[in-house]
């Protein structure tokens, strides 16, 4: 039986953002529409700067919210939170949203990148939910665009465009050699896996680690737009409705 030998990871460039702190973010929701569905759980995983021995201090915070609406069975089957549990154990959604948004905005204002897989879903959901509850949106808190954001899904499409296969988080864990001991689709496990994939990607693709955060943020917006336009052309050729949103890190409706 043959075995694939992984080469040693490339060192990170001096001064790279990849040496600094990271804030991972993920949500679980009542459905798949970021503008219409509601927050059920949120997780933030804060990782400190890379130490000399290659480790990072890590802090995990999780929230369970009562979304104020029924959680459909299909959504509960994904993340395991039923309407009954959310009502019994969840905190009021407005309280959860305020705490999560405050932490996200503080990090970004300090220049710490928020790391989210398929970030446009979670960030669009946050903006919609904050507005729904009469709370300041992330853009209002930041006084401008939501940045810096790092999205391993968008980055992977940009740096390894022609790789075949799906690009779900679990698929990318396999590609980048990230071990996940627990089932994905609990927010905190997904966040840790997303951060691990990003860090592995920074080693595997020097252009990712070597680009400053502002330029990398802009590159992702351009790369996502190019991907969406290409995918929509493919959908049209297949006789299907082109529905890939070209906007990032927020959906075009925002």
Automatic annotation (TrEMBL):
NCBIfam families: PRK07942.1. One of its GO terms (cellular component) is cytosol. PANTHER family: DNA POLYMERASE III SUBUNIT EPSILON, PROTEIN NEN2. InterPro entries: Ribonucl_H (IPR013520), RNaseH-like_sf (IPR012337), RNaseH_sf (IPR036397). This is Exonuclease domain-containing protein. The keyword Lipoprotein does not apply. Gene3D superfamilies: Ribonuclease H-like superfamily/Ribonuclease H. GO terms for molecular function: 3'-5' exonuclease activity; nucleic acid binding. Keywords: Exonuclease, Hydrolase, Nuclease. Pfam families: RNase_T. Residues 21-207 form the Exonuclease domain.
